[in-house]
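Question (not urgent): is this output format expected?
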Amino acid sequence: MSEITTDAAAWQEARVALLEKEKAHLRAGDAISAERRALPKLRVTTAYEFDTESGPQTLDDLFAGRSQLITQHFMFGPDWNAGCPSCSFWADGYDNMIQHMNQRDVSFVAVSRGPLDKLLAYRERMGWSFEWVSSGANTFSHDFGVSATEAELAAGRMTYNYRESSVREGEFHGLSVFERGDDGSTLHTYSSYGRGLDPMNTTYAYLDRTPRGRQEDELPFSMAWVRRHDEYE
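Got this back:
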């Protein structure tokens, strides 16, 4: 429990002390971002084809003429009828930021293994408009570490977030980033999974500034409280 005071000067002194730590944290984040941009770039050699609203498209097509591409790995398995509630929590923030990313030469798409008609029906239900494509007919989601193969499901283990993890439903969330090389090739520059996606959730960023924070410590798992936005009472 935080101390309660009526001494404004003492409150400000404590706040300024924390501000210095916040600034150091931001500077450390800037340094990590620079290291992220300096990571080696891996040439993509697999010819992926996705099912999209515009018909079959390759990974190159998803760049939409821009030099950079973010693919959001959205948990929606082939036999599911609705998207993951936690992924939906993140997705509520996508639409209004995409036009800003486009201005910085970045395209954005969500990718799931579910069939396109189910993805689009769920998108309509949720009131979203971002581009959503299906990787159900290719190995993209397997290759980028967010979907278990049949063998991995049978074994109950797969590599997720760069380490061996147990498999429950066979689908995980994450994001992968690509760049168009000077020679026209497609380069994989970055992928992140698990809590590495926390900074992309604006709601969490605001909750982290409140006195009670996320209020998840006593829950059976961190996002047990999260519902699809049309399911809250």
